[in-house]
Design a protein that fits this description.
The protein is α/β, with parallel strands linked by helices and about 375 residues long. Helices cover about 35% and strands about 15% of the residues. It contains 14 helices and 15 strands. The protein has helices spanning about 25, 45, 50-55, 95-105, 120-130, 145-150, 155-165, 190, 195-205, 210-220, 245-250, 270-290, 320-335, 365-375, and strands at about 60-65, 80-85, 110-115, 140-145, 175, 180-185, 230-235, 255, 295, 295-300, 300-305, 315, 335-340, 355, 360. Strands 1, 3, 4, 5, 6, 7, 8, 9, 10 and 13 form a ten-stranded mixed beta sheet that branches. The protein has a three-stranded antiparallel beta sheet with strand order 2-14-15, with no helix packed on it. β7, α11 (about 245-250) and β8 (about 255) form a beta-alpha-beta unit. α9 packs across α10 and α12 (about 270-290) packs parallel to α13 (about 320-335). The longest helix is centred in the C-terminal third of the chain and has 21 residues, at about 270-290. It is globular, with a radius of gyration of 19 Å. The termini are far apart.
């Protein structure tokens, strides 16, 4: 066990790391819905619009978050999710991953952001995925650092595995020759709003403070003298202005992205879109001030009301048109890369993988929207 992992024992659901919405977020208008409110959403055929001609004038580089642990959640945590390829296992079989890669490549996606840091099975999951035929896709670690620390993972062992298995290979996504690594929920390290976050914040101080801790990450993830390109997920914390502790931590990274802005509220689409616009604008301003890249995160909606394992009633209506709106918005603020959450997180209802969710079969509708933005 490393010093960074010491004292952070225990396992928690993914929703427990979500922070209370800042006052500017909480004041947004919300719309109450119930578990049965699925008929209020437009179907993909009603919302789908032709995007290729409109969007292809300025194509974007797209990375898509990939969730490898969803396989053992079908039937246990969710009974309303049915991938077109059938309910696959954990780890995702290489044959299924090959088909997933084909869909993503056909949509013009350049990079798979592979979720790592959840559990001891992650090394097996990534190794299995890398054995698939990934075609032209590159792979980028999407390291869930707050989960890793909360679950007392040996993150140095994770980093060693990533160096040997991915970062040192041609398959790794690079920016200016540097391997790119994105850290989910990075502000957890400066938050201090819960007992385990306080411990994580102290560990940052023990490494010499924010600058020293980021230097530590660079040292751990450097391969053959080449430093990594570090991107942090800042969620929507830039709205209204970053707290000082967040600013001091975040400014030492090379880039930023934003996870889906859902906590416990139920959001209507207009409220969501407006809040995301504020978040994109504020985060881009921060990145410009600190000479950082900005990779805004988009999504088609969100629905964990069906999730019997860690769902907390969070809901944003799903529709291909919603993904298109956020991609258009993200293109305005991006410095060259746009992210999508996610390819296959069926447990939280933001997947674009073809299949059936609740009462809606949508085939490649969401992937077709992405293709409209990647076409040259």
């Amino acid at each position: 066990m490393t010093a960074l992992g010491a004292g952070l024992a225990g396992c928690s659901s993914s929703t427990e790391t979500q922070r209370t919405v800042r006052e500017t977020t909480a004041s947004q208008t919300t719309q109450s819905k119930t578990e049965t409110d699925t008929t209020t959403e437009p179907t993909p055929s009603e919302t789908r619009t032709e995007t290729t001609t409109e969007a292809s004038a300025e194509s974007v580089d797209v990375g898509v978050v990939y969730i490898p642990f969803v396989g053992d959640k079908f039937g246990e945590c969710t009974t309303v999710s049915q991938p077109e390829l059938g309910q696959y296992g954990d780890p995702v079989p290489s044959a299924i991953a090959t088909r997933h890669a084909s869909w993503l490549a056909d949509a013009g996606v350049s990079t798979v952001m592979f979720n790592v840091g959840e559990s001891r099975r992650d090394h097996e999951r990534l190794s299995t995925f890398l054995r698939a035929d990934l075609g032209p896709l590159s792979v980028e670690p999407f390291y869930v650092i707050s989960q890793a620390l909360r679950r007392d993972r040996d993150i140095e062992a994770d980093f060693e595995f990533l160096r040997e298995t991915l970062l040192s290979t041609d398959r790794c996504h690079r920016r200016d020759g540097r391997p790119v690594i994105t850290f989910w929920d990075f502000d957890f390290l400066a938050w201090g709003g819960s007992e385990d976050s306080k411990e994580a914040k102290q560990l940052v101080e023990d490494r010499g403070g924010p600058a020293g801790f980021v230097d530590y990450l660079r040292e751990q993830l450097t391969v053959d003298g080449t430093e990594p390109f570090l991107v942090g997920d800042f969620a929507d914390h830039a709205v209204g202005g970053f707290p000082a502790d967040y600013t001091e931590l975040n400014r030492h990274l090379d880039g930023a992205t934003n996870w889906i802005p859902v906590q416990t509220e139920v959001f209507d689409w207009e409220t969501t879109r407006d809040h995301v616009a504020q978040s994109f604008a504020a985060t881009r301003t921060f990145c410009d001030e600190h000479d950082m890249a900005y990779h805004p995160m988009t999504f088609p909606g969100f629905d964990d009301r069906h999730n019997s394992c860690w769902g907390s009633g969070r809901y944003i209506p799903r529709a291909p048109a919603h993904l298109r709106e956020l991609l258009e918005l993200a293109r305005e603020y991006s410095t060259g890369r746009v992210n999508v959450a996610s390819f296959n997180d069926w447990t939280e209802g933001h997947q674009i993988e073809p299949g059936r969710f609740r009462d809606t079969t949508y085939s490649t509708d969401y992937l077709d929207v992405v293709a409209g933005f990647t076409a040259p």
